[in-house]
Amino acid sequence: MNNTKLETKHYSMNYGSFRALEDITIQIPEKQVTALIGPSGCGKSTFLRTFNRMNDLIPGVWVEGDVTLEGKDIFKMDVVNLRQRVGMVFQKPNPFPKSIFDNVAYGPRANGLKDRAQLAELVEKSLRGAALWNEVKDDLGKSGLALSGGEQQRLCIARALAVKPSTILMDEPASALDPVATLRIEELIRELREKYTIVIVTHNMQQAARVSDYTGFFYTGGNRTGKLVEFDLTSNIFTNPKDKRTEDYITGRFG
User: What is the share, in percent, of the chain residues with pLDDT greater than 70?
Assistant: First the structure.
């Protein structure tokens, strides 16, 4: 496997007395796309949000085990710094009610960048990185909310890129989009892999097979606790899974 970017060892997460995730050990490689698949409610989005500590915002959450970014314990990191390094793109596009320019410039400004020329350069670079520049370059003052759904999602990706993360988490980033916009997002994910580590949660197995290098299959038993059943190269998961539950899921026997 390539260099490990994110890693969990015997990681469990609890909401009060409810165990949401149990004993997950995984190594997510650098500059690859890792897909997390599994039936609804199996904990894959909860697990994804571990890596930028979004779960910290939920009352009563407590964790066990280790979670590291480049070998460093994320729970000992400054959370603002962590979220600069680990960006997030959500299921539903959520641009701010601001101009396209101000959406992308928001993070860098919050981090203290004030120089207009440097901001303009960074906004252009981020929009190019999100494959949106050519569509919006002549109208950066337009509201981000006026864009189409697919353009809004690419704007949110540009906004994530602008703070110069090394890792991007994507929680079902194309599930609210039409097939054409979905294809653009998938193409973009493949391009971004050259510079970023990407972890994507998707309910669409065909999408996981198309865009990812590695796949983790999550499953929950009768107690509703999410577990990682299998993690391997995507080609192996889809053609030669080791666990019967993985095989049953990808062949459509359940889920």
Answer: 98
